[in-house]
C-alpha cells in the first residue's frame, strides 16, 4: 500500500482528528484502506491529561494493523488475518480486517523498520494511513509522504507557532543534492560537538576546491553539534557541500527556528541539501491546547480562523483545519498531490481528472 | 551467562534526581552477567543516544516518572534513537511509577516497566525472552496449603485430661442419637454419588423432602422460592463462566504476604453467585489466600437446603449444590475455599456439600452455634459431631470459632467451648483450627482490657492457647471487628494492624473484612475490598518477619485465661457438655450466652425412626 503518515509537532496538535478526516477521504477512493499507528491511539481519555480523545472509527473492510490484545478492545469487529512479527510494548502487531464498522484502538510499529514490515504485509493496492504519536516523526520515513499536524498545543502564542511551524516546513523543503562528485567525509549517528571538530579536521586534510568535497551527515544533527559545525567550517579555507540524509536529521535536531538559522549560516558558504526528499503534503492546524492549572487539565482554544489564515499565508503547502467544511476537498487534493509528485500509482483507485489536475503545491 | 549472550546495557534516568530503580536493575543485570553503563540523572536525550552509540549497547533502559512534558522528552528520545540509527539493533524500554504498556507504546518504546516490576523482568527483557515462572510480580504464587504442622499435643496436661474426659462423655451421650439434619446429610451424600453414577435420585429426594420444613419444605412440595430469590438463567451462568475463565488467565496480582506463613482469608456472600465470583476475582487480583462462603441466616434455621442456582438473596448467598458448584468453577487456581457449616440445622449436610464440591475447609462449632448462633444445643451437638465425622472423611480442616465473645461471653468460657469441640474433632480424626476472636468484644470493652493498647489482649489469647495445646490458630472472624468505623481508611488500617499482629504471633491464618463491611448499609463494594487488602499487604510488608512485642500485661492476662479455662472445663466435666451449654457454664444468658431454640426437640434415638 501507498502510505501517508500523520505526524504532529507535539501531542494534542490534532493528529487523530486529521487521521479520521483522511480516513473518510481514503474510504471514498474505492481502493483498500489500511490503518496503523507508530504509537498508541484510540483510547477514550488521554493517558496524561485525562481529557477526552477523538475516536478512531473505521468502515467495514478497512485493514487495521494493531497489537493483538487490542483487537477486541474497540467496537469494530476485527478479524485477525496474520501476524507480522513486529512487537510493541502492548503485544505483537497483527493484520486484521474490519468485518463490521466501529471504533478501533491502535498500537502499531514504533520504528521505521517495523512500519516497513507492516506496510509490506498489507495488500499491495490501496492507501494506508499511519497515525503519529507525541511529536514523533522518525518512523514516518517508511511512508511516502507526511501530513503535519500543528497547533496551539505546540506553541500557545500565534507568532511563535507560525514561526516555528514555518521553520519546520522550511526544513522539509531543502533541496535534494545530486550524488557527490568528489571526496566525502561521512558522519553517522548523532552529531556531537566533538564529532563536528573531528569532521572539520578530516575536511581540512582533504583540502581541494569548493564543490569537490562533501560532508555527509547521517543520523541526527542536534543544534549543539550544528553550532560547532558551523563554527569550525567557517574557520576552514574551503567550503565543502553539506548533505543531510533526510529531513529527520534536521527536524529532530532541536527548535526548528534555531536549526533553520544554523542551516542558513552554513548556506552562506556552502551548498546545503538532502540526500533524499520526503514530501510534506499538507499542514493541519488545531486551535486546541490542554490548559493546565493546579495539576488539572481543561480544554483551551486559540482563535481557530486566525490560526488557519495566518498559517496558510506563511506556508508553501496546503493548510487545513480539518473541522472546516472544505477540508475534504483539500485532503483529496493532498492525496492527488502525492500521486503526481511521486509518480505513485495506487492500484484500484479511479484516477479521475480531479486527482491529476491538481498541481503540486511544493515549491 | 556466556560471553556471547551477555548484553551491554545502558541505563539512563531521564529524571533530574532519582535513579534508584535503575541501580536495583543494574545489580540484577550484573549478577546475570551483563555489562552495564549507568548514566547520571538528568542527561539530555541527545547525550543518552550518543552514549548508546559510543558504548555500542544492545539495550537502553530509561526511567522517569511521567508528566506531560516528560513524556514528550521520552518520546523525543525514541525519535532521536530511531533517526540516529540506534533502533536498527538496540531495544529500548522505559520504567517508572506512571509507566504503562500503552504509554510506552505511544512514546515509541519496546517495553514498559511500571510499578511493581521485578528486576528479573528487566533482565528477561534484556535477554530477549519472556520472564520465567517466578520472575514476574506475583508469579511466584502457589496454592497455599491448609495442612498444619502442629502436633495437637497438650502442654497443659490437666486441661488435656479434662478435655478427654468431656469428649468421652459427649461421644457417649451422642451415641445412637440422630436428627433430621444428620439423616439429610446421609441422603445428600447418597444423592450426589448416585447422580454421579448415573443412577436415579428420585427416591432419595422424596425421602429428603420429608425431612425438611419451612422454606425448604415449600420448595420441595410446590417449587416455591423464598421471597426475593430467583433462579439464575443459563446465559447469566455462561457469562460468568467466561468472565472467570478470562480472569483466571490474567497474571497473578501483587503479593499480599511478605514472606509470612499466615494465610489471609476474607469472605464473600453477596446473595448472587455471579456477583460472588466477581468479588472473588477482585480478592484474587489482590492475592488473598482464601475466600469464605457466607450464607443467609435463615439457612441455619430451616430444615433442608434448596436445589438450583439462585440469586437475589439478601444476607449471604444461599447454599445449594448448584450455587456451590458454580462458585467453585469460578475460583482461581491459587484460592482456598471455605464453606461454613458451623451454626445451623444443615451443618452436617453443608460439610457433605463442601467435601463433595471441592472446598478446602469448613467451619464447625457446637458451642457458638448453640449459644450465639440460635441452634438448640442438643441438636447442634448431634449435628456437629456428624459434621466433624464428615469433615474427617473428606479431609476438610475446619476452624472452631469463639464468636460467643461477640455476645459478651468472657474469653475463658468461649475458649473452653472451643477447646472441647476441637478436642472432640481430633478424636474423630479431624483437623480443627482454633479461632479466637481478634476484636474489640464486649468483655474487652467492659473490663477495659484494650484501653492501653490493642496488642496485649490478643497476644494473651494466643499465649494462653499455646500454653495449653500445640494446635493451629486462625484468629477471626474477622480480625479487627468492632474496631471499624464509617471511615474506610481507619477500618483498613485497623484490619491491617490486627492481621500483622496475627502474623507476628505466628498464627496459621487470619480472616479479614472489607473496609466497609460494618457500615456499608448495603452491598460491600469492590473498592473497599481492595482498600483492606492493600492495607494488609502494606502492614505485612512493613513488619515482615519483625515481631510485635506485647507488654508484660499480656503474660498476666494469658495466665488468667488459662486458669479460667481450666476452671470452666472442670465444671463442664462435672455436668457434661450439652448440659453445660444449657446451664450457662460456657456462657450464661447474663453474659450473652443464650441457648438457641432452632431444632429443639428434634433429636431422636436411632431406633426411634
Automatic annotation (TrEMBL), chain A:
<protein>
    <submittedName>
        <fullName>Uncharacterized protein</fullName>
    </submittedName>
</protein>
<dbReference type="InterPro" id="IPR027417">
    <property type="entry name" value="P-loop_NTPase"/>
</dbReference>
TrEMBL record, chain B:
<feature type="domain" description="B12-binding">
    <location>
        <begin position="5"/>
        <end position="133"/>
    </location>
</feature>
<dbReference type="InterPro" id="IPR006158">
    <property type="entry name" value="Cobalamin-bd"/>
</dbReference>
<dbReference type="GO" id="GO:0031419">
    <property type="term" value="F:cobalamin binding"/>
</dbReference>
<protein>
    <recommendedName>
        <fullName>B12-binding domain-containing protein</fullName>
    </recommendedName>
</protein>
<dbReference type="InterPro" id="IPR036724">
    <property type="entry name" value="Cobalamin-bd_sf"/>
</dbReference>
<feature type="region of interest" description="Disordered">
    <location>
        <begin position="588"/>
        <end position="609"/>
    </location>
</feature>
<dbReference type="Pfam" id="PF02310">
    <property type="entry name" value="B12-binding"/>
</dbReference>
<dbReference type="GO" id="GO:0046872">
    <property type="term" value="F:metal ion binding"/>
</dbReference>
Amino acid at each position: 500500500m501507498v502510505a501517508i503518515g500523520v505526524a504532529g509537532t507535539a501531542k494534542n496538535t490534532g493528529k487523530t482528528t486529521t487521521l479520521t478526516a483522511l480516513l473518510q477521504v481514503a474510504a471514498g477512493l474505492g481502493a483498500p484502506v489500511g490503518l496503523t499507528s507508530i504509537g498508541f491511539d484510540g483510547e477514550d481519555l488521554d493517558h496524561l491529561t485525562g481529557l477526552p480523545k477523538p475516536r478512531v472509527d473505521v468502515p467495514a473492510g478497512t485493514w487495521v494493523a494493531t497489537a493483538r490484545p487490542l483487537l477486541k478492545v474497540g467496537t469494530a469487529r476485527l478479524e485477525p488475518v496474520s501476524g507480522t512479527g513486529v512487537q510493541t510494548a502492548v503485544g505483537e502487531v497483527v493484520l486484521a480486517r474490519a468485518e463490521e464498522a466501529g471504533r478501533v484502538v491502535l498500537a502499531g510499529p514504533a520504528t521505521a523498520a517495523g512500519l516497513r514490515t507492516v506496510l509490506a504485509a498489507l495488500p499491495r493496492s490501496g492507501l494506508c494511513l499511519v497515525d503519529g504519536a507525541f511529536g514523533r516523526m522518525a518512523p514516518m520515513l517508511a511512508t511516502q509522504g507526511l501530513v503535519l499536524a500543528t497547533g496551539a498545543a505546540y506553541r500557545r502564542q500565534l507568532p511563535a507557532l507560525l514561526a516555528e511551524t514555518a521553520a519546520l516546513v522550511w526544513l522539509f523543503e531543502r533541496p535534494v543534492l545530486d550524488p557527490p562528485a568528489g571526496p566525502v567525509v561521512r558522519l553517522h549517528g548523532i552529531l556531537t560537538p566533538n564529532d563536528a571538530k573531528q569532521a572539520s579536521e578530516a575536511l581540512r586534510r582533504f583540502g581541494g576546491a569548493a564543490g569537490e568535497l562533501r560532508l555527509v551527515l547521517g543520523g541526527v544533527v542536534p543544534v549543539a553539534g550544528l553550532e560547532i559545525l558551523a563554527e569550525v567550517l567557517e574557520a576552514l579555507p574551503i567550503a565543502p557541500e553539506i548533505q543531510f540524509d533526510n529531513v529527520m536529521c534536521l527536524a529532530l535536531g532541536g527548535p526548528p527556528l534555531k536549526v533553520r538559522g544554523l542551516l542558513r549560516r552554513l548556506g552562506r558558504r556552502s551548498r546545503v541539501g538532502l540526500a533524499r526528499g520526503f514530501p510534506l503534503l499538507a499542514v493541519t492546524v488545531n486551535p486546541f491546547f490542554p490548559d493546565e492549572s493546579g495539576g488539572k487539565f481543561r480544554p483551551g482554544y486559540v482563535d481557530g480562523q486566525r490560526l488557519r489564515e495566518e498559517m496558510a499565508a506563511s506556508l508553501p503547502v496546503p493548510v487545513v483545519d480539518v473541522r472546516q467544511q472544505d477540508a475534504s476537498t483539500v485532503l483529496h487534493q493532498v492525496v492527488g498531490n502525492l500521486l503526481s509528485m511521486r509518480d505513485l500509482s495506487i492500484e484500484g483507485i479511479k484516477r479521475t481528472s480531479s486527482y491529476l489536475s491538481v498541481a503540486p503545491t511544493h515549491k | 551467562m556466556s560471553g556471547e549472550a551477555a548484553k551491554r546495557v545502558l541505563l539512563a534516568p531521564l529524571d533530574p534526581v532519582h535513579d534508584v530503580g535503575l541501580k536495583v536493575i543494574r545489580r540484577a543485570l550484573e549478577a546475570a552477567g551483563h555489562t552495564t553503563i549507568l548514566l547520571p540523572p538528568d542527561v539530555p536525550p541527545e547525550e543518552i543516544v550518543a552514549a548508546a552509540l559510543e558504548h555500542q549497547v544492545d539495550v537502553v533502559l530509561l526511567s522517569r516518572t511521567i508528566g506531560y512534558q516528560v513524556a514528550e522528552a521520552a518520546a523525543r528520545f525514541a525519535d532521536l534513537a530511531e533517526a540516529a540509527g540506534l533502533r536498527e539493533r538496540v531495544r529500548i524500554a522505559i520504567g517508572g511509577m506512571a509507566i504503562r504498556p500503552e504509554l510506552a507504546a505511544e512514546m515509541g518504546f519496546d517495553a514498559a516497566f511500571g510499578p511493581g516490576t521485578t528486576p528479573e523482568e528487566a533482565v528477561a527483557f534484556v535477554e530477549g525472552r519472556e520472564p520465567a515462572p517466578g520472575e514476574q510480580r506475583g508469579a511466584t504464587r502457589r496454592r497455599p496449603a491448609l495442612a498444619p504442622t502442629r502436633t495437637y499435643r497438650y502442654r497443659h496436661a490437666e486441661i488435656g485430661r479434662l478435655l478427654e474426659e468431656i469428649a468421652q462423655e459427649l461421644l457417649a451421650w451422642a451415641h445412637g442419637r440422630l436428627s433430621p439434619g444428620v439423616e439429610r446429610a446421609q441422603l445428600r451424600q447418597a444423592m450426589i454419588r448416585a447422580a454421579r453414577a448415573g443412577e436415579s435420585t428420585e427416591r432419595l429426594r422424596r425421602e429428603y423432602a420429608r425431612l425438611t420444613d419451612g422454606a425448604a419444605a415449600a420448595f420441595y412440595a410446590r417449587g416455591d422460592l423464598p421471597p426475593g430469590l430467583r433462579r439464575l438463567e443459563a446465559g447469566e451462568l455462561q457469562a460468568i463462566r467466561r468472565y472467570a475463565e478470562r480472569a483466571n488467565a490474567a497474571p497473578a496480582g501483587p503479593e499480599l504476604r511478605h514472606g509470612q506463613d499466615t494465610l489471609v482469608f476474607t469472605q464473600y456472600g453477596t446473595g448472587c453467585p455471579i456477583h460472588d465470583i466477581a468479588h472473588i476475582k477482585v480478592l484474587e487480583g489482590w492475592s488473598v489466600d482464601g475466600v469464605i462462603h457466607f450464607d443467609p441466616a435463615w439457612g441455619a434455621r430451616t430444615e433442608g437446603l434448596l436445589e438450583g442456582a439462585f440469586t437475589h438473596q439478601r444476607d449471604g448467598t444461599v447454599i445449594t449444590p448448584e450455587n456451590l458448584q458454580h462458585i467453585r468453577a469460578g475460583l482461581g487456581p491459587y484460592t482456598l475455599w471455605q464453606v461454613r457449616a458451623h451454626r445451623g440445622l444443615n451443618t452436617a449436610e453443608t460439610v457433605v456439600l463442601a467435601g463433595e464440591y471441592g472446598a478446602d475447609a469448613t467451619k464447625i462449632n457446637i458451642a457458638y452455634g448453640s449459644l450465639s448462633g440460635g441452634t438448640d444445643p442438643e441438636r447442634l451437638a448431634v449435628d456437629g459431631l456428624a459434621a466433624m465425622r464428615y469433615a474427617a472423611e473428606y479431609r476438610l480442616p475446619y476452624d472452631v470459632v469463639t464468636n460467643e465473645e461477640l455476645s459478651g461471653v468472657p474469653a475463658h468460657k468461649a475458649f473452653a467451648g472451643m477447646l472441647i469441640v476441637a478436642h472432640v474433632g481430633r478424636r474423630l480424626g479431624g483437623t480443627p483450627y482454633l479461632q479466637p476472636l481478634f476484636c474489640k468484644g464486649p468483655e474487652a470493652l467492659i473490663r477495659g482490657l484494650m484501653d492501653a493498647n490493642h496488642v496485649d489482649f490478643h497476644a494473651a489469647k494466643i499465649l494462653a492457647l499455646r500454653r495449653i495445646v500445640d494446635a493451629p490458630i486462625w484468629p477471626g472472624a474477622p480480625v479487627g471487628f468492632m474496631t471499624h468505623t464509617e471511615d474506610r481508611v481507619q477500618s483498613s488500617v485497623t484490619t491491617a494492624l490486627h492481621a500483622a499482629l496475627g502474623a507476628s504471633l505466628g498464627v496459621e491464618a487470619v480472616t479479614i473484612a472489607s473496609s466497609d463491611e460494618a457500615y456499608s448499609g448495603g452491598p460491600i463494594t469492590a473498592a473497599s475490598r481492595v482498600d483492606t487488602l492493600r492495607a494488609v499487604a502494606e502492614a505485612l510488608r512493613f513488619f515482615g518477619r519483625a515481631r510485635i512485642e506485647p507488654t508484660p500485661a499480656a503474660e498476666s492476662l494469658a495466665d488468667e485465661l488459662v486458669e479460667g479455662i481450666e476452671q470452666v472445663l472442670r465444671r463442664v466435666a462435672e455436668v457434661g457438655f450439652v448440659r453445660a451449654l444449657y446451664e450457662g457454664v460456657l456462657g450464661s444468658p447474663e453474659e450473652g450466652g443464650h441457648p438457641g431454640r432452632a431444632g429443639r426437640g428434634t433429636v431422636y434415638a436411632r431406633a426411634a425412626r
